[in-house]
């Protein structure tokens, strides 16, 4: 039975509701990382070059970025239970299609379908928690469903590498199927179906302009990574993307109810935080793609070994969160973000020093340091972006921020793939598997990341209160 969004809160079985939402989020976050370690094996199976497989990752992240802006309105219009159940169904169907793919193009199309479902799982799940639990229970509830944001990246690369070796890459998608089927039945029975009394009119024109801007820009950058497209087409796509973005801004200025209001950008912390997130995440988003390729293609590790070496990154990232709040409170956002962004860029560039003679302990320490610094960066960027949002701006501001997170991840993989191809041609290594190619790519990504410190430099100096967990966005 549909329930108005402002109806009395409190589901009949609150703990079960949280478990269903947490499992749905876990599926989505797991598939954001589990594919990376399996890319070389997938390339061999599909008869492709490993460095052409970036589209498998980009298509998923880019689809999520495109769909996320519409999820809030869809949940208000059709109900949280229906959209959450639909999200799990689409994600499960996409997983089956991925496992059944026989060509790269089929796999990319299946990942798009999977991304549509994944895009709705996290924001609609958060919306259910927001509406189903009273304020005194909200912090505990949102902290519980945030656990998958930590566990998914922790086991994703390792599980992906292990499944490739003991079975085949198809199983990294097939493991979603039984969980998805149970999730569909459980969500239809237990998830409350909150509806907005007046969902309002969806800004379709603005949404289409934003979608065109993201897709055209991403395709233009992806074309640089060896798709064989003519330079004229790439230029036209880039111009189309920039023109669509400018057209959206003009549209939003005169629209009474734009999908993202320009008023969000009147807040200096949100404006700087959002732009800093976008460009800093290009470097962070490139690393889960680059590191497994480096370990397998250039250093000769097996998929399972490469996956195991990603564990220090995730574990150190989890442990570093405890220190973030105290450090930011003591020193303030601006000096912390500027210095940590420079440190993150230097840490990314340091992977150019990786070689076959490097001791294993040094490799583990290097990966752990990167994980700690990268997680600290996410925590600080997330907090500074959302800390000044008013309650009436929270939904729109959080949705735009989630979109930028996924777009940054997509652009990171796209830029990394383009750099690998460019340096492969430069070093006359057509396969792009040699250490010099990867070393040059890490240095370039590191320098790009360090450049984003100039954005955080624009933050107002001073000490600021760190928002509570209820206002923070999970790392992705």
Automatic annotation (TrEMBL):
InterPro entries, alphabetized: EmrB-like (IPR004638), MFS (IPR011701), MFS_dom (IPR020846), MFS_trans_sf (IPR036259)
Query: Where are its TM segments located?
Result: 16-35, 55-76, 83-102, 108-129, 141-163, 169-192, 204-221, 227-251, 297-319, 331-354, 360-385, 406-428, 440-459
Q: Does the keyword Transcription regulation apply?
A: no
Residue intervals of the Major facilitator superfamily (MFS) profile domain: 17-464
Q: What does the organism's lineage look like at the top?
A: Bacteria, Pseudomonadati, Pseudomonadota, Betaproteobacteria, Burkholderiales
What's the protein called, per UniProt?
Multidrug transporter subunit MdtD
Keyword check for Transport:
yes
- Give the record's membrane topology: Multi-pass membrane protein
- Keyword terms of this UniProt record: Cell membrane, Membrane, Transmembrane, Transmembrane helix, Transport
| Any Pfam family matching the protein | MFS_1
Q: Which NCBIfam families match?
A: efflux_EmrB, PRK10504.1
Biological source species: Ottowia pentelensis
Q: Where in the cell is it found?
A: Cell membrane
PROSITE patterns on file:
MFS (PS50850)
């Amino acid at each position: 039975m549909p329930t108005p969004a402002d109806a009395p809160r409190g589901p009949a079985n609150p703990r079960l509701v949280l478990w269903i939402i947490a499992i749905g989020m876990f599926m989505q976050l797991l598939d954001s990382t589990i594919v990376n370690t399996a890319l070389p094996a997938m390339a061999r199976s599909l008869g492709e070059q490993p460095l052409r497989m970036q589209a498998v990752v980009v298509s998923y992240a880019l689809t999520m970025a495109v769909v996320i802006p519409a999820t809030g309105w869809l949940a208000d219009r059709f109900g949280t239970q229906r959209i959450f159940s639909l999200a799990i169904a689409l994600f499960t169907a996409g997983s089956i299609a991925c496992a059944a793919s026989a060509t790269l193009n089929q796999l990319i199309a299946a990942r798009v379908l999977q991304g549509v479902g994944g895009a709705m799982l996290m924001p609609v799940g958060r919306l259910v928690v927001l509406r189903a639990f009273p304020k005194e229970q909200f912090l505990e509830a949102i902290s519980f469903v945030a656990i998958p944001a930590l566990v998914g990246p922790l086991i994703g690369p390792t599980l992906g590498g292990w499944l490739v070796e003991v079975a085949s890459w198809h199983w990294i998608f097939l493991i979603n199927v039984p969980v998805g089927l149970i999730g569909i039945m459980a969500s239809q029975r237990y998830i409350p179906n909150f509806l907005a009394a007046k969902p309002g009119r969806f800004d379709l024109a603005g949404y289409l302009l934003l979608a065109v801007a993201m897709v055209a820009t991403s395709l233009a950058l992806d074309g640089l990574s060896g798709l064989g497209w003519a330079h004229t087409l790439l230029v036209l796509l880039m111009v189309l993307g920039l023109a669509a973005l400018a057209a959206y801004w003009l549209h939003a200025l005169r629209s009474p109810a734009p999908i993202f209001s320009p008023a969000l950008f009147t807040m200096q912390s949100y404006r700087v935080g959002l732009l800093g997130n976008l460009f800093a995440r290009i470097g962070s988003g490139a690393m889960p793609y680059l590191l497994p390729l480096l370990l397998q293609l250039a250093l000769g590790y097996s998929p399972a070994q490469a996956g195991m070496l990603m564990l220090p990154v995730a574990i150190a990232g989890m442990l570093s969160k405890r220190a973030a709040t105290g450090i930011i409170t003591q020193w303030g956002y601006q000096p912390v973000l500027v210095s940590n962004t420079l440190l993150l860029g230097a840490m990314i560039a340091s992977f150019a020093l990786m070689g076959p003679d490097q001791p294993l302990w040094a490799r583990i320490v290097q990966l752990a340091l990167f994980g700690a610094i990268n997680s600290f960066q996410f925590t600080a960027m997330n907090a500074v972006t959302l800390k000044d949002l008013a309650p009436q701006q929270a939904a729109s501001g959080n949705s735009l921020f989630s979109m930028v997170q996924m777009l940054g991840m997509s652009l990171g993989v796209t830029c990394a793939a383009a750099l690998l191809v460019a340096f492969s041609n430069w070093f006359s290594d057509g396969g792009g598997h040699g250490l010099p190619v990867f070393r040059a790519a890490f240095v370039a990504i590191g320098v790009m990341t360090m450049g984003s410190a100039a954005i955080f430099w624009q933050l107002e100096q001073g000490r600021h209160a760190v928002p509570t967990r209820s206002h923070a966005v999970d790392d992705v």
